[in-house]
Amino acid sequence: MNLFHVRTCIVLLLASTSTVLAAAQPPNIVFVLADDLGYSDVGFNGQRFYETPNIDALARDGMILSDFYSGGPNCAPTRACINTGMYTPRHKLFTPGGQAKGDVKLMRFAVPTKGQDDPAYNTVDSMPNTIDGYHTSIAEILGGAGYVSGRFGKWHLGEDLQGFTVSSANGKPGVVGKKFYGNIDVAEDLTDAAVQFIEQNKEKPFFLYVAHWDVHGPLRARKEVVAKYKKKLETYTDDGDWEWNPIYAAMLDAVDTSVGRIRAKIKQAGLEDNTLIIFTSDNGGASFATTNRPLRGAKGAFFEGGIRVPTCAAWPAVIKPGTRSDAALTSVDFMPTFAELAGASLPTNQPVDGRSFTKVLQGQAALQNRAIFWHYPLYLSGAGYNKVLPVFGTDKLNWRAVPSSVIRKGDYKLIHYYEYDDYKLFNLRDDLSEKNDLAQKMPEKAKQLHAELMAWVKDTNAPVPNKPNPKLAK
């Protein structure tokens, strides 16, 4: 083939892609969020005991986003990042409840702490679980572009509708501990509402936000599904030492069934080619419930096990089936991506930290060397294998997280610990388990990333604790 024909083919290919996007505008957007689902809990990331055929089919029919990260290592921060497009220092939801959790006598710095009423510890501006009245949400900007928006399931961000036309757990109280309503489990209940929403709004562009309560504890599931996994466990062999939990498996089974039902409804309504479906999680798996191996740490930690989450997307008219992207993406990227697809304007009353990954979904090389960030000014006690950080001045592992800031850029990730006046550098391509700190071996790379991280901390006015804790045990 000569050069003229090659150029002609490229032009035609780009033109056809643009035509598809133009024809698909504005697409329906379906966003499915699991709660506490670990990176390695799904089949498309190698899981064999838990069964996720519908989620795996979504990945197979579209694109796996292998390097996708939650905006925080636990619930509320990530949900605020998703819905505002801002990093945590801007919306200030650093942790559920807005306070550190753990033994105050083991903390180097005085910070707002659960059970600590001394006003001297109110040193960090940290919001409780709300974005009410403060920030513009995804639903609000999509509403401005003519979308109807439905939100079903866990919200964790206050009482305000935040632009959603419909917002409920299908008329049921949103209580994480209540997993059954009569004979209907919570996943089935909110999926019923989601399917009904699709049927009622199939003639107009819609944004559907389905936020599962599962697989967050307490662990409760249908007895017949639990029995299925108990039987499987009798003959299951694994090269690791993790004790697989049939109840957790059954809860994930319910989430997977929900994904299948939503996809089936989209197809039945004739909307498949014009609908983007994204599946992801709000943070890594909880250490008491599942293993995140080969990743280090779990929910609450800033090692990969706490923030790298299983994510995939399907859109038949645009996303090539069976594809994969290793672009580093994160929760703040959803707002600009959905805005671009919908032809919506981004908010002018707040910064938007995210970047659109529309080109990534189209299969183009994009966002390959961008930096993404995290910040946490508090403490979070650890448990089990998720005690990953020591008490200041000792070797005793106690914490999931301590005051810290994090940058991921290219293959490298640097974690700066204010608690220890130190930082660690990892090459994630060669060392996904973060076993080898390269800060001493690669000092120039570490200094470069650290400087970029500190510039971001300053730019976002991220709160950095510096008041010594008078109650620190000597």
Brief overview, please?
This protein has helices spanning about 5-25, 55-60, 75-85, 90, 140-145, 185-200, 225-235, 245-270, 305, 335-340, 360, 445-460, and strands spanning about 30-35, 65, 70, 150-155, 165-170, 180, 185, 205-210, 275-280, 310-315, 325, 330, 370-375, 380, 390, 395-400, 405-410, 410-415, 420-425. The chain is of the alpha/beta class and about 475 residues long.
Descriptive report:
This protein has 474 residues and is an alpha/beta fold. The chain contains twelve helices and 19 strands. The protein has two domains: 28-93 and 129-369, Alkaline Phosphatase, subunit A (3-Layer(aba) Sandwich), CATH 3.40.720.10; 373-459, Arylsulfatase, C-terminal domain (2-Layer Sandwich), CATH 3.30.1120. The strands form five sheets. The protein has an eight-stranded mixed β-sheet, sandwiched between helices. Helix 6 runs parallel beside helix 8 (246-268).
